[in-house]
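Why does residue order matter? Because the sequence determines the fold. Keep that principle in mind as you read this record.
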Amino acid sequence: MGFFKNQFSNLVEWNENGAGVLFYKWQNQEIKKGSRLIIRPGQDAIFLYNGRVEGIFEDDGDYDIESEIIPFLTTLKSFKFGFNTPLRAEVLFINTKELLVKWGTKNAINLQAPGLPGGMPVRAFGTFNCRIVEHDVVIEKLAGIRQTYTVEDVKERIIASLDQLLMSWISKEGRDMFNLQADARNIAKGIESDLDMDMRKLGIGISDFKIESFSYPEEIKKMQEKAAAQSMVGDMNKYAQMAAADGMAKGSHGGSGLASDMVGLQMGLAMGQQMVNQMNMNGGMQANAQMQGMQPSGATGAGPKFCPNCGTPTTGSKFCGNCGNQLL
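Structure:
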């Protein structure tokens, strides 16, 4: 008898061998006498008969189907196993855990940006979480035609509509196209709401949608890096000083000849500017001295050119050579 019992009985279970599966339909539709149902943590088991839900079992454990499951089935409460009368029913295992999915845009999205008539191509990457939230909807929309449904199926559906959602939410409120990362959280929340609404039509909820990064073309990245460097320096004098110091450091460690030449040129320009400034300063001082030399003799303390007593030329003497009159 033990031989026949083992031959006809079976285990109704799901080992979850495939990662990222949202639901799995038990393949053998004949449940024989002595069969057992095993529900693992993070699983629900749904019994279906003629396409209708007969019972949902959420507590994990090992159950005898005849004595512990059938009495709770809606229309199969009085079912009696016989030697040739197996229970022809389907068992759908639901993964109740929340699954993490990585996503990325298939192609670059062209966003309208100032100065770029063809738009700016942008890619985006991130993650989202998904889980089954409506058993009845999953059974109606998916389980009737699918043996399994995976996160890849969810991802494929989401990616198909993600480009339009990104364009829509990025274009709102005049966001800075060159600094989208600063507003990534708000953009992600808007997309999460739209995706969740769409996927709930299949009984699947989307939560915690995140945009980890936006990817710009290399030309845009270089422009951003250059602008950031200039803003950190503040003015061209500081930029030249920093470039010279960096160049000298590289030169001392075997830097390239081109880098050294660039540094030398920058230092030469800086020294030339300093010389021009110095010449302008010295020229101004000399002009001031000349202006002071052109002042009247009385203002500087010099004596008269002719003796006021007799009119004889003084030739710079302190006393007149003719009459002896004191001149200073």
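Residues 100 and 129 are 5 Å apart (CA to CA).
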